[in-house]
Amino acid sequence: MRRMVRVLLALAAIVGLHAASTLRAAEPPTAAAKLPRAQQAYLAYCGMCHGPRGAGDGEVAAALKRSNIIVPRLDDAARLEKLGRAGVLRIITAGGAHVGRSNVMPEWGGLVGAGLAGGLADHVMSLPAQGPGLPAATLQRYLKSPPGGPEQGRSIYVYRCSACHGPTGKGDGPSSDLLLRKHGVRPRDLTDARFARTKSDQELFAVISLGGGHTGRSVYMPASANDLTPAQIKDLVAYLRQISKTASKP
Prior knowledge:
The chain has 250 residues and is mainly α. It contains twelve helices and no strands.
């Protein structure tokens, strides 16, 4: 599950968490179940760069642009018509480097499988027709943090974690079955309070920052110190406290 922008963003300094006030426990977002699986997968794998509605305005698009890499707009009907569904599917499955395009476009075929790759291609092909008609309010509800939580916590989770850990943190993301089948690894259920209570905020921060391989856990848990700022990681830790209904633990 490599993230394409790690080499493009400056290394964020990893800092210790200060003691935080206990966040009010909240139920996981219910809007997740209202989004089709392909759209959930699109947000998990593609939205970070291409934007939630395909406008090329994902959270890392500006950083890529500073490195002279322009994220393609997926709401461009002419572009998609020229590629066709088969071309879009090839890019999703094989990655940019294997089809004469940017090598920062990862190959997702090994992580999503043929069925979901096809669903992603269908969703991408539908983006130009959706345009302003895409239910923005539904999307906002899906990305919105629960009451009392950090503003960015949920959206960071969706773009960075949900591909493996699932839309609500149950360990049932689009890549979870393939990880189990190929590598014997099941993404952790992040709503499990019994596990979360045993971990301090600093420990959660370290796993997110350094990845599993550097913290005695699965090597398939990627490091995010190059992708996320310390403040964003703190927001993500606070969101994990919410969905696990556990108090902040310095």
